[in-house]
Amino acid sequence: MAIEVLMPALSPTMTEGKIAKWHKAPGDKVKAGDILAEIETDKATMEMEAVDEGTFAKIIVPEGTEHVAVNLPIAVIAGEDESVDDAANAAPAKPRAAAPKAEAEAPVSVEAAPTAPAAPRRETAPAEQEWTGGSVTMTIREALRDAIAEEMRRDENVFLMGEEVAEYQGAYKVSQNLLQEFGERRVIDTPISEHGFAGIGVGAAMAGLRPIVEFMTWNFAMQAMDQIINSAAKTRYMSGGQMQCPIVFRGPNGAASRVAAQHSQEYASWYAHVPGLKVIAPCSAADHKGLLKSAIRDPNPIIFLENELLYGTSEPVPDATDYLVPIGKARIVRPGEHVTFTAFSRMVHLAMEAAEALQAEGISAEVIDLRTIRPLDVETIVRSVQKTNRLVSLEEGWAYSGIGAEISAQIMEQAFDYLDAPVGRVNGKDVPLPYAANLEKLALPQVAEIVAAAKATLYR
Amino acid sequence: MAIAKRKPKSGRNDASAVPDIEPAQLQKFYRDMLLIRRFEEKAGQMYGMGLIGGFCHLYIGEEAVIVGVMGAVEDGDGVVTSYRDHGHMLACGMDPKGVMAELTGRRGGYSHGKGGSMHMFSTEKSFYGGHGIVGAQVPIGTGIAFANRYKNNGKISVTFMGDGAMNQGQVNESFNMAALWKLPVLYIIENNKYGMGTSVMRASASHDLFGRGAPFGIPGHQVDGMSVVAVAQAAAEAVEYVRSGKGPYILEMQTYRYRGHSMSDPAKYRSKDEVNRMRQEHDPIDQVKNRLLEDGITDEAKLKDIDKQIKDIVTAAAEFAQDSPEPDPSELWTDVYGEA
Fold first, then answer.
1. What is the pLDDT of residues A183-237, one digit of tens each?
2. Is B259 helix (H, G, I), strand (E, B) or coil?
3. How near does any CA of chain B get to the CA of A127, in Å?
4. Given this model, what pLDDT does residue A106 score?
5. pLDDT recorded at residue B6
């Protein structure tokens, strides 16, 4: 059967080109891989190779011709059991009807507009049950350690790796006694190679384990960004759901005290930007434990943001190994009527202080602890705004493209008519964090600023 | 697989250096390499017709590497590679139809059309991708080895990388940890001489790439990656070493890609003579074909029969890849998260 040679597309964007030179003439034998012609595009001259075997029968488009459209028949090859003359005569000299549909210049018609649903299915987090059982008071550091230990006892595939997590017992003493209980097979000290061990964690997760990868601080995880985003977050989607990456990346996030710009960044908005990741930033000890346990059991890559300044805080934690806090659920930690604060991690404490100060002036503030940043519990925020008609977002990180910017947009889209004032934002100042004590204090959100922002929404 | 030293045979000077191999195995190598060659040629043609978009990195010329290595591994050993991955998937036993349909971005593709040329996976065949960032698959492959050791399942990880990946930090970080923890990982460097348009000579201060493991105590050596028999023998020995618990091993395959880095690369950084010399004098498929005929293992008719079978498989794959419908629009939103 005669085989038509079509003008090839030699780059993702090529629509036409010039036939610079024919390397075969009628009568020549053609083997797969032989160079048939040189094709010139606007970018380069490239060789066109034969895919079929046979005898070169006829040139349809002579060399030197410019503006030859992609997919136009340009030559004919006679099949192995066919005469050259038959093939040359049999071949139609016009484009095939069955032109490929993936044409670069295909116009976008209304009918062809995608019929995809306009938004992803919104996952509703399972309802959270109020804890009515007994509690034990412990530090957040201990709550995290207990969460890890309990999950390691529960599931043999859970292991912990990171810098100083084993023999040193954790740079911030979160992993105390884990090496003693679980041994060096499951509690693993890594060299200082964030990119490498994050990727090893990703590979281990893809191969069926449940790694907990500790970053000494999230500042160092920038070294590992490619593995977190390109490998962990995107693999499930790129594989059509075939491959999964159940991994928890955790460590302290945000400013500690006087450690300056490179060790003090707050990363919630960086990771919250990425579909495929879940981002958790708890404040209370109970939430640290319950959410970390949920994170370890979750089949997705999780970014778990802790805070060094909170590690020593002692609070009651439910006394049960099956106590889980659902991912994706915010919590109203102080009900109020006049203005809503959204906050996460350490900023919840500042929100509570500001609410207390406002109470003295007769202003009742509702404080929402977001707990999970992605998926964000927008429903809880909207319901609160429907009641208070005012919203101030608190965030230690920078305002620009921050979580507050996202919340503002969501509330504008979903509760615009309920707002009696523009959404307020209190953020870290738009500078790298300074070292000097007075400057550092100025750079971070202060209670007085939160109070002022709340009053501004009340025009007071 | 059975590889022994080839018995000296009159009229053949290099006989003692060439390992012997079972005729059936050699014929299988021929078939497997030819499948990759024909598949890739077809992919190139379909790219030219606009049926395949984006980046498309062909493996033509390098077939002996994956085919020889796969001859030495066992079921359940993990395989992971970079974006020049079609050959690896076929050699792992993945269905050519599913691979080609992924190239055309259709529903029947391994990733339902959501991954494309560089992102396909098969849990069934222990193929862990297809990775688009140079070097990123190396820690991942090391992590697969970590998981194998953790589970104590006797499996190894075979982690492929190009010469370009050797200068990535995460590759060296992985080498260090793999050696430190004696992980069962076989690193295969596919040195095709060029990282896109930059030759190894212009990119690497040291050119013996297998030597990059030396600072960590990882043994390794170079292999003629155009000879599938040499590859198979070296891989068999290296696999045995790795599986025995001695830690990682590095094989540097001296190979060559005939085509450009990707479809849109005119390959002006090397001479036509260089390419032609490799094709004419070192082609991995021709080498095996000649030996099959010379040794009387098979005849022209049998080879023609194999060619025909391969052609049919590739044609069927190409047809499937064009007939399979585009993904349903609702697929846009699926597989971002797994159900907790």
1. 999 999 999 999 999 999 999 999 999 999 999 999 999 999 999 999 999 999 9
2. coil
3. 14
4. 45
5. 41
Is the bond preceding A432 in cis, omega lying within 30 degrees of 0?
no
Interface of B with A in 86-105 (CB under 8 A): 104-105
Q: Burial-class residue A63 by CB neighbours within 10 Å (0-12, 13-18, 19+).
A: middle
At B206, list the tokens. 């040291």
**Dihedral (CA of A233, A235, A241, A246) sign:** negative
Domains of chain B from N-terminus onward: 21-316 (3.40.50.970)
Taking Cα atoms as reference points, which of A291, A194, A274, A207 lies closest to residue A245? A207
Average pLDDT over residues A326-334: 98
Of A44, A203, A246, the CB nearest to B140: A203
A325, A294 in Cβ contact below 8 A?
yes
Residue A52's pLDDT band, with cuts at 50, 70 and 90, is: confident
Is the minimum CB–CB distance between B260 and chain A shorter than 8 Å?
yes
Tens of pLDDT, residue by residue over B124-158, are 999 999 999 999 999 999 999 999 999 999 999 99
Domains and CATH numbers, chain A: 3-90 (2.40.50.100), 135-318 (3.40.50.970), 331-457 (3.40.50.920)
What pLDDT, on a 0 to 100 scale, did the predictor assign at position B328?
95
A171: which DSSP letter?
T
CA distance B151 to A149: 19
Please list every residue in chain A whose beta carbon sits closer than 8 Å to the beta carbon of residue B333.
116-117, 119-121
Distance CA(A20)–CA(A335), nearest Å, equals 76
Distance between CA atoms of residues A454 and A457, nearest Å:
5
pLDDT over threshold 50, residue B111: yes
Please report the number of interchain residue pairs, chain A to chain B, with beta-carbon separation below 8 angstroms.
230
Q: For this structure, is A263 an active site residue? A: yes
Instruction: Give B129's contacts in chain A (Cβ within 8 Å).
Output: 235, 238-239, 243
Q: Which residues of B touch A122 (CB under 8 A)?
A: none
Given a cut of 60, whether residue B210 has pLDDT beyond it is yes
Closest CA to A24 of A12, A34, A11: A34
- The question of whether A40 is a catalytic residue gets the answer no
The tokens for A70 are 């992609």
Distance of CA B122 to the CA centre of its chain: 15
Is the pLDDT score of A93 beyond 80?
A: no
Write down the pLDDT at residue A200: 98
How far B113 CA lies from chain A's nearest CA (Å)? 8
- State the Cα–Cα distance between residues A224 and A198, nearest whole angstrom: 6
Contacts 24+ apart (CB under 8 A), A148-152: A148/A174, A148/A175, A148/A178, A148/A212, A148/A292, A148/A296, A149/A177, A149/A178, A149/A181, A149/A182, A150/A293, A150/A321, A151/A292, A151/A293, A151/A296, A151/A297, A152/A178, A152/A181, A152/A182, A152/A186
Search chain A and give the residue with CA nearest B267.
A46
**Could you tell me which residues are beta bridge partners of residue A425?**
A393
Cβ contact A240–B335 (<8 Å): yes
ipTM above 0.90, yes or no: yes
